[in-house]
Every structure is written in structure tokens, then in C-alpha cells.
């Protein structure tokens, strides 16, 4: 069974942390169909700050398009370093160290928390929180100005 696959009937609950882990795997491999299968059609992604990526995105298509655009705006030569997993009944979080490599070769490191809420075996809400919101806003402001490929 693929986690979150709406075509598979099951009464067995999928843990929030299992869905978050599967989502991170899908992002790492750019498996957009797998990511789609893990999220509710009405998923909401909350991104704090004042950068061009800040705000609330509603709907799985909007969320996936944003991830794709963020990937195209950055270079990534290093996998995130997982620091800690937090698991609750309907919420899970991962603390990770991320590196963003700009096209000009500058590397920026951020510690981030990704928090998800799960309902009916699907991710229904996501929050991304970084330790230095001002630096993240400034970085995304610069990166978003570049035309998408």
C-alpha cells in the first residue's frame, strides 16, 4: 500500500510521522505523484514571513506547484540533515538543517521545522518555520526575482 493512496480502503490509521517521512522522501526524489497521494485535496500550507513565498497556499496543486518553483529557483547539492522527529496523534514534525545553494554559488544554512496535521490518513495542513525568518525572507526575495526556467 502506498501511504495516503486514496484508492486503497483501509481502517488502519497511518501515523502522522509516517506520512511526514513519506512526504520528505517524495520531495527528495521529486516524486510529485507520491506527494499528491499523501495530501488532502484541500491541504493548506502556511509559510510565515514577508517573502514572495509567504502566505497560505490552499489545494494540493498549489502546494506542489510551489515546491516545484522553489526547486527550480535553487540549487541543492546537499541533502537536509535530520535533527529530530516529533510524533503526536494527529501532528508530526521534523527539525532539520537545510542548505540552499544559490546559482551564484553562495550557500545559506537554515534550521527549519516542518509541522504537519493529519486527518483521515492524509496531510491536511503544513507549517514551515525557520530559525531566522528575516534571513529566509531576504533569500527568497532574491531567488524569486530570477525568472523560472
Distance between the termini: 35 Å
Largest sheet: 6 strands, mixed
Helical amount: 25-40%
**Numbering strands along the chain, what is their spatial order in the largest sheet?**
2-1-6-5-4-3
For the record, the CATH class is Alpha Beta
Instruction: Please tally the β strands and state the result.
Output: 6
In the CATH classification, which architecture applies? Answer: Roll
What is the arithmetic mean of pLDDT? Answer: 85
Helices and strands, in order, run as: HHEEHEEEEH
Domain module tally = 1
pLDDT below 50 for ≥5 consecutive residues: which ranges? 1-9
Radius of gyration, whole Å: 15 Å
Shape type: globular
Which structural class fits the helix and strand makeup?
alpha+beta
Q: Count the helices. How many? A: 4
> What is the CATH topology descriptor?
Nuclear Transport Factor 2, Chain: A
Give the gist of this structure.
This protein is of the alpha+beta class. It has helices at 16-28, 32-38, 60-73, 133-145; strands at residues 39-47, 55-58, 81-87, 91-101, 107-119, 122-130. The chain has one domain: Nuclear Transport Factor 2, Chain: A, CATH 3.10.450.50.
Walkthrough of the structure:
The chain has 149 residues and is an alpha+beta fold. The protein has a single domain, classed as Nuclear Transport Factor 2, Chain: A (Roll), CATH 3.10.450. It has a 6-stranded mixed beta sheet with strand order 2-1-6-5-4-3. The chain is globular and about 50 Å long.
Amino acid at each position: 500500500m502506498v501511504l495516503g493512496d486514496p484508492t486503497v480502503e483501509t481502517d488502519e490509521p497511518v501515523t502522522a510521522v509516517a506520512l511526514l517521512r513519506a512526504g520528505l522522501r517524495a520531495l527528495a526524489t521529486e516524486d510529485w505523484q507520491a506527494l499528491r497521494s499523501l495530501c488532502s485535496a484541500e491541504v493548506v500550507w502556511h509559510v510565515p514571513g514577508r517573502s514572495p513565498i509567504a502566505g497560505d497556499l490552499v489545494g494540493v496543486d498549489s502546494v506542489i506547484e510551489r515546491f516545484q518553483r522553489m526547486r527550480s529557483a535553487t540549487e541543492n547539492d546537499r541533502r537536509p540533515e535530520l535533527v529530530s522527529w516529533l510524533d503526536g496523534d494527529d501532528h508530526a514534525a521534523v527539525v532539520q538543517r537545510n542548505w540552499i545553494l544559490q546559482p551564484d554559488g553562495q550557500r545559506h544554512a537554515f534550521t527549519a521545522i516542518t509541522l504537519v496535521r493529519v486527518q483521515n490518513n492524509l496531510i491536511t495542513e503544513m507549517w514551515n518555520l525557520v530559525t531566522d525568518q528575516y534571513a529566509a525572507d531576504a533569500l527568497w526575495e532574491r531567488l524569486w526575482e530570477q525568472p523560472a526556467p
